[in-house]
Structure formats: C-alpha cells, structure tokens
Amino acid sequence: MDLNTIWFLLLGVLITGYAILDGFDLGVGVLFLFARNEEERRIYLNAIGPVWDGNEVWLLTGGGALFAAFPIVYATVFSAFYLAMMLLVTALIARAVSFEFRGKLTGERWKKLWDWCFGLGSLVAAVLYGVAVGNVIRGIPIDESGIFTGSFFGLLNPFALLCGLVGVAMFTMQGAAYMALKTEGELRERMRDWTVRGWTAFVVLYAVATAASILAAPHAFVGLLGKAAFWIILLLFAVAAVLVPVESRRERYGRAFLMSSLSIAALIGLAAVGLFPRLVPSSINLAYSLTIYNAASTPRTHMVMLIIALTGMPLVLVYTAYVYSVFKGKVVLTEDSY
Amino acid sequence: MDPVLLARIQFAVTIGFHFIFPPISIGLAWLLVVVEGRAWRSGDPVYVEMGKLFGKLLAFTFAMGVATGILMEFQFGTNWAEYSKFVGDIFGAPLAAEGVFAFFLESTFLGLYLFGRGRVPKAVHWFSILMVAVGSVISAFWILVANSWQQTPAGYAIRNGRAELESFWGAVFNPSTFPRFFHTITAAFLVGAFFMAAVAAYRLLRNREDEVGRRALRLSLVWGLVMAILVAFPFGHMHAQQVARTQPAKFAAIEGLYTTQAEAPLVLFGWVKNRPPEIKAKVEIKGLLSWMAFGDAQTPVRGIDEFPADEVPPLWMTFVSFHNMVILGLFFIAAMAWGVLQLWRGPPWESSWYLKLLVYAVPLPVIACEFGWVTAEVGRQPWIVYGLLRTSEAHSQTVSAGEILFSMLLFGVIYVLLGALWVYLMIEEAKHGLEPAVGKKEVMV
Fold first, then answer.
1. How far apart are the first and last CA of chain A?
2. Which A positions 147-176 lie with beta carbon below 8 A of chain B?
3. Is B250 in contact with B313 (CB distance < 8 Å)?
4. Is pLDDT of B157 > 80?
5. N or C: which terminal CB in chain A sees fewer CB atoms within 10 Å?
6. What is the DSSP letter of A287?
7. Model confidence at B62: pLDDT above 80
8. In Å, what is the CA distance from A9 to each residue of A66, A250, A272?
9. H/E element, B273
10. Are B13 and B412 in contact (CB under 8 A)?
11. Which residues on A lie below 8 Å from B103 (Cβ)?
C-alpha cells in the first residue's frame, strides 16, 4: 500500500471520527429545537458541554490533514465551495458562541436568541455537510487544468440536496441515540422515539439517495461489485443499521449508540470505496478528476505527516476516552453547568 | 473592486479579530496553573474562588477563539487557493500538527477542567488546566512555525511549480521560528497578566477589601513585570536582529531607514510619507540602529533605496505599527514596575489612579499584539511567501470580488456584534462573587 492510499484512509478515519463525535453534537442541536422547557434545554446543552469542543477539533485536524496530504483538493474544493464554506463557518460560529452567551444573562428573549443560534446553526451545518458530500460523490465541474468552472447554485442540485437531508436524518439519529444515554424518564423515552424516527428517515432517504446516485454518479459504481471492501462494509452497514432500532427498543442504549456510530462509519466507508482512488471526480470529464496521486503532496510530506499522526493520535484517543469516562452517565445540572 | 485587495482585507479583518483571543487565553491559562496549583495545595477558599472566576473568563474567551479560529484554517483554501497549492507540501503539516498535538489537548482538557471540578481528584483537575496551558503553547508554536516559514522559507526546493519539502526540521526551525515564538509567547503571557490585573483592579475599585482582587493583583503584577521585560529584552531585540539579517527590506521599512548608510540612525519619532519615501519631523539617534542590529555602530544598514520599487513593503503602515508597539512596550514595563514597587512600599490597591490606569490599560497589550502582527505581515509584503510568491498571485482565481465582499460584510457584522457582547459580558462576569464594600465580612484565610 502506498503513502497516498494510506493518507486516503487516514483522511477517512478523521472524517469518520468527526462525523461520529460532532455528529451527535449536531444531532443534539437539531433535537434542541424540539425541547419543551428550560430544564430540558439545559440538559441538552450540558449533555455535550464538556466534549463538543474536543469533537470539533476532528474537523480542524481533518482540514489540516487535507491541506497537508492533498493540497490541490483543499485549495480547489474550498475555493469552489466558497459561499457554502462561509455559510458553514457562520453556522459553526453561531453554535459555538451560543453555549457561552446563553447563560450569561437572564431574560427570555436573550435565551431565545441563542437557542435559535444553537439549533439552526446545528441544522444548517448538518445540511451543508450532506450537500458537500453529495457534490463530491456526484463530481464537480473541474476542467483540464484543475480549475473549478461551476457556481454556488450549481452546488445546490437535487442530488446534493437529497444528501443534505440524509445528513440531517443521520445526525438526528446519532444525536438522539447519544441523548438516550444522558437522560432518564420521559425525556429518555422521547429520545428513544427520536432515535427510531431519525433512523427511519435515514434509511429511507439513504436508499433513495443510493438509487439516485446510480444516475447522478455512475462512475462510483464501475467495478464496485468486484471489490471485497465494498461487500464487507455493506454487510457491516446492514447489520449496524438494522440493530439501531432493535437495540433502542430493547432499551440497550449503549449498543444502540454504538450501532448508530458504526452505520455512520460504514456509510462513509461505502462512499470512500465508490470514490477511490479519486478524491473529487470531475463532472466534465472523469479524466480531469482530482485523485490521490495528481492532487497529492510529496512522499516526504506524507511520511512526516504519518509520523505526526502515529505519535499524536494514540495519545489523543487515550485522553479523549478518559474524559468521556469521567462524564459518563446522566446529566446532572450544577452551578458549573451552562 | 480588486479581488486581491478584498481578499487581503477579509483576511486582515478575520485574523485581526481572531488574534484578540488566543493571547488572552494563553496568558490566562498559565496564570490559572499557578492559581489552581495553590488552590489544590492549600485548599484556600480564596484561591478556589479565583480559579472559578478566571476559569470562567478563560472559558468564554477560549470559546471566542475557537469560534473565530475555524475560519482561519479554511480561509487559506477558500480565499488563497493558489497560495495553498504552492505551499501545501510544507504549510499543511504544521497546521495538522497543531490539530493533533495542541487543539485536541487544549479542547479536551478544557472540558475536563470546567466541568470536572468536584468530579475528578484535585490533582487531576490541576493537571487538566496544566494541559490546557501546555496545549495553548504548542498550538502557538505550530502556527508560528507556519507563519515563520512564510517569512523566512527554508528546507524546501522549488519543483513542479510549487515549494516541496526537502527537510522537515529545516522548514520547522527556519531562521525566524525561535525569535518569533519567544517574542510572541512572552507577549501572550504579558497580555494575560494585564488582563488579570485589570480584572483585579476593577474589583478593588469597587471593594478595596476584595481578597480575590488583592491576590490576583499581586500575582499578575509580578508575573507581568517579568514578561514585560522579557518580551522586549531579550526576545523583541533578538527578533528585530533576525529581521535585519533575513528580511532587510522589512527592517528598513519598520525602522524608517530610506537610504543605506553606515552609522545608521535609530528613528524614535517621525511622520512617514510613502512617496517619495520621506520622514518628516523626525527625532533620531545616530549610529544606534547599526549598533542595535549588528552590534557595531559603524556597520552599514541597508535602506529602502537598495531595493527595487516592487519589492518594498508599505512604509507608513509598517513604521507606525512598529513604533507604536515599541512605545506601548515601554509603557508596559513602566506600568508593571510601578505596581511591583508599590507591593513593597504600600499596597497598590491604596492608589485609585493606579487601579483605574490598570483597568483602562487592558486593551493596550492586545493592541500591541495587533501592531506587532501588522508589522510582521505588512512588512512581508509584497510577498505572501517572502521572496518566492507574490501576494497578488496567490488568491483564489475562481472566487469573485462580489463573493468576497459579501462574506466580508457578513463576518464584519457578526464580529462587531460578538466583540461588543464579549466585552460587555466579560465585565459582568468580572464582578462575580464580589461583595459590596460597605458592611461586608472580612474574608479571612
């Protein structure tokens, strides 16, 4: 396996880590829009309070890794998605500051303002991630010299928007599965229902999106059935996805969350198998696509980055796991809470 | 409108706003390591209170830094795609290293620090703020590595139309990394000290008996004096000497030296005109610049006239920002030294004017940091990578002026609102737990 392939995989790992971890944060944000009273809202916020910031670092590290490993993709895609990126950043800023701002003053309107910032910020971010992935799978107009020739509105095509909905459903499922671990009583029952609801929407929308992608992204299916990785990940996805509602109904919330996380990982894996070795297909001509070879850094940089990842990430995983274990269990509101 | 100019303004606005927060976080985190350490070892409730107060202020400021920082990392790709393609093989690695080694550390342990009080053993709680502080310095290191490489590129070769990595350590420890790192990090410590001193002074003005305020003042004055000296000497001085060696055009611009000469004068004050290069009403000391830059008053220093017109940075802005930074630096030493002197001669909280001075001085170290950053980055112009790639060739070809203008206005409005709210709420938070001066109980240890 060459370094380019290793970095394709590692980037997948970072994106998966982000989707699983900040995925539940975003889902909690979406569900927050449906919270019934102030105490519930505080439970939502404090369920993710100690960890959301660390979860978001997966995005920053993923961005840095993309810049370092495949700078041409970083430069081309980020500038091509210019307005969408600015919207995404606005949404992420809105949700990040609302944690701190919300509790600083009393007053209904003040709280309401930041409630909306948090909820809508999460929702918009969830949609935009889906839209971005949809566009990458479908391919974007890149010409023979690697220049993006499309427009912002071209990114809002039906297939990408459909993927945006898949994103919202998936994160809602993940957020509800997480919240079921952090709550009790009636709220927990509602979270269980939301897990199943989110799951249903996710499975249906994903099936539709997959069918649509045969038309929208035929290149992703060429030779797919002959790849062992495809069948293994598909099987994993099927098992995990089936078990989400099953475990949820049996009130085994830990397993339900695990299965929800696994199905997210498998979904990203399926997209990656379809793309490989391309990173961004060109919708003008597949030959113009950005691949793990023509968009890559030098082997020396890949090696340096690999050493950085292998020394740093195990440590990250250890202390992240420790912090999660400290905050395991139900949310308890104290004076240090949001 | 010119998309390059707009992209530059957008970058300046967004990074200038972002750069308000990290120095405060870095400085405050290390002071909290001291405060929480004492709270843990002595169990003294005053230190516990101090930890909670400044911990909340840190959390709020840190969140602002995170929120405004996401844009920073994306902006290279969105606005400066040609730059990103040119430097990606070198510049991306420090950014990724910052994520792996620093952002995870600070963010994860900040959560533990803020929410873990009472849930984890006290030693672990102290360890968590220590990790936040360590992470913040590692973060500063890697981002300054990236920035320094733009200023004094090393460890690369130009191949395939881009800079490719030849030596990782050569790129990391390029000629300006260490001078820049030490100068910037001591500046951040100084910002933290002024910040804590201002909060303490604000509380003491309302209640001279406030024990949290007294101890915070004592700690921040001593720490602040040390940092105010270090940031200028040796680190500021070393940094300037390095600029003189490695970026002579920048050095000539910031010092206001427009003709090459031996016994070059140090310009203390003056009014700069860009075209033709000229300083009016200047006060200067002959030979001092040569001596400070190269250790010998006779050594010639290269002036602006040595460089082609299209390789000269803007003169007015670099001169003004650099000189104001230096003046502020001298003020910081004086302000902190006076306070430390009062710790012996009679407590500084007896002096109303001094407490007021500290309160109103709180934006100044942040402003000095911004001046320093303008000096460094405007002084690098017209290059985005010094000597290798021009700023005018580095922006995203596919992004229109209209799109940049739109996002710039969007962030402009958001940042003005967020900034105003942050200042207002920080002031509210600073009063936390403050009892009214009249009829209050003495806080005893």
1. 47
2. 147-149, 152
3. yes
4. yes
5. N
6. G
7. yes
8. 12, 35, 9
9. strand B266-273
10. yes
11. 57, 60-61
At B7-41, the pLDDT tens digits run 899 899 999 999 999 999 999 999 999 999 999 99
Check residue B437 and give its pLDDT: 61
Q: What's B304's DSSP letter? A: G
Q: Is the pLDDT of residue B439 over 60?
A: no
Confidence label for B438 from pLDDT (cuts 50, 70 and 90): low
CA distance B313 to chain A (A): 27
Cα angle: B405, vertex B410, B413; to 5 degrees: 120
Q: Dihedral sign for Cα A180, A183, A188, A194, please.
A: negative
CA dist B293 and B238 (Å) reads 9
- Residues 308-327 of chain A whose Cβ lies under 8 A from any Cβ of chain B: 308-309, 312-313, 316, 319-320, 323, 326-327
Residue B413: count other Cβ atoms within 10 Å of its Cβ: 10
**CB distance A96 to B106 below 8 Å:** no
Average pLDDT on B196-202 reads 94
Run of H or E residues at A279: strand A278-280
Q: Angle, nearest 10°, between helix axes B363-380 and B177-206? A: 160
Residue B88's closest chain A neighbor by CA? Answer: A71
Orientation angle between helical segments B81-97 and B122-151, nearest 10 degrees: 150
Q: Residue A129 burial by CB count (10 A; 0-12/13-18/19+): exposed, middle or buried?
A: buried
From the list B78, B92, B418, the residue facing A64 with the nearest CB is B92
Output the six-digit token pair for B217.
Answer: 């003042």
Q: A124 — phi, psi (to 5°)?
A: -60, -45
Place of tokens 């290069």: B277
Q: What pLDDT is recorded for position A233?
A: 94
Pairs across A and B, CB distance < 8 A: 228
At B199, is the pLDDT very low, low, confident or very high (cuts 50, 70, 90)?
A: very high
Put simply, the answer to whether A93 touches B82 (Cβ < 8 Å) is: no
Torsion of CA A255, A256, A262, A268, to 10 degrees: -170
Average pLDDT over residues B252-260: 89
End-to-end CA distance of chain B: 64
Report for B44-48, B129-133, B293-297, B342-346: range of highest mean pLDDT: B129-133
- Record: contact B165-A298, CB cut-off 8 A: yes
Measured in degrees and rounded to the nearest 5, phi and psi for residue A156 equal -95, 50
Residue B205 to residue B207: CA distance in whole angstroms: 6
pLDDT at B87 over 80: yes
Lowest-confidence segment of B289-298, B312-321, B412-421 by average pLDDT: B289-298
More confident residue, A335 or B396: B396
Q: How far apart are CA B50 and CA B216, in angstroms?
A: 8
Q: Give residue B333's pLDDT.
A: 95
Residue B157 β-bridge partners: B164
CA distances to A233, B62, B291, B303 from B262, rounded to whole Å, are 72, 48, 10, 10
pLDDT at B431: 84
Tell me whether A82 touches chain B (CB under 8 Å).
yes
The pTM for the full model equals: 0.92
B441: pLDDT strictly greater than 50: no
Which residues are registered as beta bridge partners of B271? B280
d(CA A99, CA B38): 29
**B234, B237, B241, B247: CA torsion to nearest 10:** 130
Assigned token pair, A39: 């105490």
Collapsing DSSP to helix, strand or coil, A118 comes out as helix
Low-confidence ranges of chain A (pLDDT < 50): none
Angstrom distance (rounded) from CA B316 to CA B256: 9
Burial class (CB in 10 A: 0-12, 13-18, 19+), B163: buried
The nearest alpha carbon in chain B to A80 belongs to: B398
Residue B440 in this model has a pLDDT that exceeds 70:
no
